[in-house]
Backbone:
């Protein structure tokens, strides 16, 4: 028997569950550490159960795991002994990697008013569950084989039907690729384009920080282009771009729509420099003041636009289905990577999404949420103007799922304000980190969770604490 009483080193945490695994792990670790030697007899299952205060069957299950893995020898009803094993390599198990704190205040995933989060309570759970369960049970035989690297043909066709009708995109299903997220598509395009066509990337200022980080990690030289009331400005003296990343439908985070004149100018720049415009058309379905301009891709005649969309913002982030419509020449560069590595969206999820689109459920959901989000945008603007109009410039956004508001006093530290709001359950984010050059201070609110109850709560939090929030950088 072991020199020390097992009850002193087999420490059971009943709240954690899996007690047999805890017994297994404790004995395994002592064997690997040389503290239990070959041939040493373990306590009987009955004795160890009494020592630990657990059922005998729990100890038996733990011992069986150890025996199956080769750490002990013996059989049920007889003595279990430590197996004769070669010594493990010297060295200690590496310490866990330290958690890296986010560089900026990051609200919890489901805090109300977190930007980019749709109203998950309004997600059509029953309809989606029916589509998903039906496809999980009844996938077509040909869908179960080695799939087309671009994605399920039925979903690619359904996406083309959707973006053609809703966004005037000009596409063939063969041009569509399916991936789990917009970020995955951006990383793929950066990986393919930057080594082949030059490393200069134009991005919006302020702009989507994830895109900035993806391109930076791929070795890009970033050129921030300021945005005004017409969207991204065109820099004629800047280095020639190889990639131009834009969000023309709703510029992120300002919400500005790129004017048609600016869109055409951008297409001319891309054609002149043989650059690729990555058009991120996220949450383009939601416009409140007027009908949106057609997608930039639809007026491109030089094959320079890669159109990117996702169902995360219009439905739910957890669906993990995004897509891109690529020019044929770019698709030829991307397909070998997809063929080797795949797109990673489960086939039954793709099939269910195709059914969801083809049955008109997305169109119906968008029609419903268009009205809901328009009302929530107005309510949030009215509330912020009423309780903080002296501190904030509040102007309703024309569309999208977020509302940017700017501090009238630009000396106020928006990071501290956002952090204080997050501590009180409000998921607003600071706007200064969206800038690469000269930061402009403000707050970004998501409207997905701007229900009457949450708006009233926000008003109460601001009214009670706003003097504390007015922290100046001076």
Residues:
């Amino acid at each position: 028997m072991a020199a020390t009483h097992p009850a002193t080193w087999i420490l059971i945490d009943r709240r954690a569950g899996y007690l047999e695994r805890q017994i297994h792990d404790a004995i395994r670790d002592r064997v690997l550490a040389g503290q239990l030697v070959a041939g040493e007899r373990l306590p009987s299952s009955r004795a160890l159960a009494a020592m630990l205060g657990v059922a005998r069957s729990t100890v038996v299950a733990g011992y069986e795991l150890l025996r199956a893995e080769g750490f002990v020898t013996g059989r049920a009803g007889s003595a279990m002994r430590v197996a004769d094993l070669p010594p493990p390599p010297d060295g200690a198990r590496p310490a866990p990697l330290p958690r890296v704190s986010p560089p900026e205040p990051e609200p919890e995933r489901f805090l109300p008013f977190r930007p980019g989060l749709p109203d998950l309570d309004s997600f059509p759970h029953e309809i989606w569950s029916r589509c998903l369960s039906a496809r999980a049970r009844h996938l077509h035989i040909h869908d179960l084989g080695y799939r087309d690297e671009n994605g399920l043909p039925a979903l690619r066709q359904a996406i083309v039907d959707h973006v053609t009708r809703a966004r005037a995109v000009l596409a063939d299903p063969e041009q569509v690729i399916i991936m789990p997220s917009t970020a995955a598509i951006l990383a793929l395009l950066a990986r393919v384009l930057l080594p082949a066509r030059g490393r200069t990337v134009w991005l919006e200022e302020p702009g989507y920080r994830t895109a900035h980080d993806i391109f930076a990690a791929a070795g890009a030289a970033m050129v921030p282009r300021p945005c005004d009331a017409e969207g991204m400005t065109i820099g004629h003296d800047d280095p020639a771009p190889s990639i131009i990343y834009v969000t023309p439908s709703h510029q992120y985070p300002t919400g500005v729509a790129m004017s048609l004149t600016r869109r055409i100018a951008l297409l001319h720049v891309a054609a002149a420099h043989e650059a690729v415009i990555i058009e991120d058309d996220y949450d383009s379905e939601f416009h409140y003041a007027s009908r949106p301009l057609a997608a930039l891709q639809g007026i491109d005649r030089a094959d320079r636009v890669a159109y990117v969309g996702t169902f995360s913002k219009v439905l739910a982030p957890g669906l993990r289905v995004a897509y891109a419509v690529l020019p044929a020449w770019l698709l030829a560069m991307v397909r070998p990577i997809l063929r080797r590595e795949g797109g990673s969206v489960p086939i039954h999820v793709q099939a269910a999404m195709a059914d969801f689109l083809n049955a008109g459920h997305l169109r119906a959901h968008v029609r419903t949420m268009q009205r809901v989000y328009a009302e929530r945008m107005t309510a949030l603007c009215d509330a912020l103007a009423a309780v903080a109009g002296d501190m904030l410039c509040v102007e309703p956004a024309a569309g999208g799922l977020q509302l940017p508001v700017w501090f009238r006093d630009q000396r106020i530290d928006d990071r501290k304000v956002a952090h204080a709001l997050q501590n009180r359950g409000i998921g607003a984010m600071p706007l200064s980190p969206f800038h690469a050059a000269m930061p402009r201070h403000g707050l970004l609110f998501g409207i997905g969770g701007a229900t009457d109850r949450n708006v009233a709560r926000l008003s109460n939090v601001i009214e009670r604490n706003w003097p504390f929030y007015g922290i100046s950088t001076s």
Notes: The two ends are 70 Å apart (CA to CA).
